[in-house]
Structures are given as C-alpha cells and as structure tokens.
Design a protein that fits this description.
217 residues; alpha+beta; 6-stranded antiparallel β-sheet; 5-stranded antiparallel β-sheet; 6 helices; elongated
C-alpha cells in the first residue's frame, strides 16, 4: 500500500510540474518568453522523469516481518538442465530453463532512513533475476550460463539503480541486493522463497527438495 501511495504522490507532483511548465511555455514576450520556454522545457523533462520514477516505485512491495515472495518448482529435462516454474506472490507464473546444478533468486531492496522507519514505513522489494550455477569450477567458467531478468525498469528510469550507484547523494534511500544463497536443483523439487529484513531464504517444501538440500549440505 505504501509504495502505491508513494507512486501516486510522485505522479501528482510530476503532473503539477508539467502543468506549470505548459503555462510558462504559452506566455508571450521574446526574451522572457525564451527564458520561460527554457525553464518550461526543463520542468517538462523533470515532470516526465518524476512520472516514470513513480511508475518504477509502483512495482515494489512492502516487506513484512517475513513474507513469502515466490514458489519455484523444477523438472529435469536433461543433464544439468531444468525447467523452473516461478510463481510470485501475486500469482503470476513464468517458465524458465536453467542450466547448472543450483539456482539463485535475487531481489532489489529499498530501505528508508530511521526517521521514516520509526513511523512504520517498511522496506520495499522487487524480484530482480533468477540464475543457474554449476558445482564444477570448470563448468562454471566454460559451460552455458543462464540468467533471466524478472522485472525491469521502464524508459530508462530506475530509482533503485540511481541510489545504489551513487556515493555522493544524501542517504534518502538505501538500495541493496537481497539474494537467496545458491540452492540445489532437483527433479520434482519445490521451494518457497521467503524475504525478511535480513534477506532471502529458500525453504524446501517437498521430499525431493529436502533430499537435494540435505545431500548438498
């Protein structure tokens, strides 16, 4: 809910900026008109960026104490080849083919300053990618690698990447990765992926998954 409200608020600000810029652009007067026009164009661009940022924030969900974010099941289709069916917390189902012996699910996490956290604002997450990995170092270096994007930001506006990649910005948002440790793939294995404030955790839900995890450990 928080991220939906935040996205709406940012959208409203963006639309207000666009409306103001259009008012400046239609006024008469050469020099002042040119200055207003330049300012108006800057404001139009700013408003569009805010609107796209709002759309990007809308794709995040709040993290509760411990939240089930996905289930993933496997069917072996060949040596070190598996079909993976990922069902997210919204019930959306996607099929991927992973190469290797293990799988990993990554998420992008947004954390807020202590002042907002004290008001009850929860961190947000978005599933980012799923990938496969081999046990053998030789295979890891030379065999086929498989990695799939699960969610991508639109139109080049990525709020998480903006804050994650900048070292000079004030700490308004703490953008970090959350990753499930590489977990074995096995025929008919079923896992649940949980997300908490400490990161992602994969939990086996049936005997093939439990046997794969026990044998690997």
């Amino acid at each position: 809910m928080f991220y939906s409200v935040l996205a709406i608020a940012v959208s409203v600000v963006g639309l207000a900026v666009v409306a103001l810029s259009l008012r400046l652009l239609i006024r008469r007067g050469w020099l002042l008109g040119w200055l207003r026009g330049m300012l108006g164009m800057v404001l139009v661009g700013s408003g569009l960026v805010l609107a796209l940022a709002a759309f990007d924030l809308y794709s995040y969900q709040q993290i509760v104490t411990e939240k089930s974010v996905a289930t993933i099941s496997f069917e072996q289709v060949g040596p070190q080849r598996f079909k993976a069916i990922l069902v997210d917390s919204e019930g959306r189902e996607n099929l991927y083919e992973l190469a290797g012996d293990q799988w990993q699910l990554d998420a992008r996490v947004i954390k807020w300053p202590n002042a907002l956290a004290a008001l009850g604002v929860k961190p947000g997450f978005r599933l980012d990618r799923i990938s496969g990995r081999y046990y053998s170092l030789e295979h890891e270096r030379n065999a086929q690698r498989t990695v799939y994007a699960l969610n991508e930001s639109q139109m080049g506006v990525d709020v998480w990447a903006f804050f994650h990649g900048s070292k000079s910005l004030p700490p308004v948002i703490d953008a970090v990765y959350g990753s499930a440790t590489f977990v074995p793939m096995a025929d008919d294995a079923l896992y649940e992926v949980l997300l908490s404030h400490t990161g992602l955790l994969a939990r086996p839900l049936n005997d093939p998954a439990q046997a794969a995890v026990t044998g690997w450990q």
